[in-house]
């Protein structure tokens, strides 16, 4: 039996109210809350996020590299296998990677690059390198927006020691608000949305920065369609 989202929401909230021994909200208060949730108010937007798109791409690159990510540039996805192989060889990493089962990645002819060993699906603890499809880049802080889904498993963002993210330059926006507007326009909100700024790191122990504290120690971003400013 299929239950629509509104009925599921009402059932959950009703159960919470019964547990708290509270009645339903008055109609006017309920309407105010629904209106606020639907409005998506925008907060103060930093001036650095209000630039033309070319400047936003440059800002994203500058902020991402400042946070220990590395950046590569390709004209289109046909160049992706060679770009990834070159990166992995440069890092002395195995040429084995688990790839998000995303249509734009599944359409690539990976077999043409005979040195790469690939498979699609979720990451496992034994996977050293993953390839994820980026949804948006936030220039304000150099952050990647990575929603979960069948085509973009979250395990790819967490388990491998090295994460590679493919991101269209056209998907780079200025502030966080624009990224969430883009996410809402894409359909229902996913179960999980990760905001990733650089590789995992921590300075909790004796104020010494350690990469890979809670996830990948390397984050490599391949920008598709962006010109290499360097």
The CATH architecture name of the largest domain reads: 3-Layer(aba) Sandwich
Strand order within the widest beta sheet: 1-12-7-4-2-3
Query: Would you identify the CATH H-level superfamily of the largest domain?
Result: NagB/RpiA/CoA transferase-like
The CATH class of the largest domain, by name, is Alpha Beta
Determine Rg (CA atoms, Å).
21 Å
CATH topology of the largest domain: Rossmann fold
Low-confidence stretches: none
Please give the share of residues in helix: 25-40%
The profile of the biggest β sheet is: 6 strands, parallel
Helix run count: 7
Note the gap between the termini.
57 Å
Percent range for β-strand residues: 15-25%
The chain-level structural class is alpha/beta
Order of helices and strands: HHHEHEHEEEEHEEHEEEE
Number of domains: 2
Per the principal axes of the C-alpha atoms, what is the gross shape?
globular
Overall strand count: 12
Average pLDDT works out at 89
What does this structure look like?
- Strand 5 (136-138) and strand 6 (143-147) form a beta hairpin.
- The strands form three sheets. Strands 1-12-7-4-2-3 form a six-stranded parallel β-sheet, sandwiched between helices. Strands 8-5-6-9 form a four-stranded mixed β-sheet.
- The model has no long low-confidence stretch (mean pLDDT 89).
- The longest helix is centred in the first third of the chain and has 16 residues, at 5-20.
- With 230 residues, the protein is of the alpha/beta class.
- The chain folds into two domains: 5-39, no CATH class; 50-224, NagB/RpiA/CoA transferase-like (Rossmann fold), CATH 3.40.50.10420.
- It has seven helices and twelve strands.
- Helices cover 31% and strands 22% of the residues.
